[in-house]
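We store amino acids, tokens; thus:
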Amino acid sequence: MLAAAARAAATPLRRTGHTDEALHLLHEAHAHLTDGFRPTAAELEAAGMSALTAACTAAQAHQPALAPDFAAQAEQTAARLAPTRTPPAAPGS
């Protein structure tokens, strides 16, 4: 819910010229969702989406220095998520 709310609020902020506030909101959501000792898979997925939204927001606002940083956060979050997934069974198993 936190990530969805942050993403929903970030869009009109960006569209009305308040990009810095949108990026701050998305960054805070990402930080809150990943600060725990062992975030759940759902928290990591939500945090990754917040970081991706921040990357897109920065790129659309012509802030190319920030976009790769947020994209890297999303990638790092995805790497944390990967070990929590159970690999699919091999065909014919």
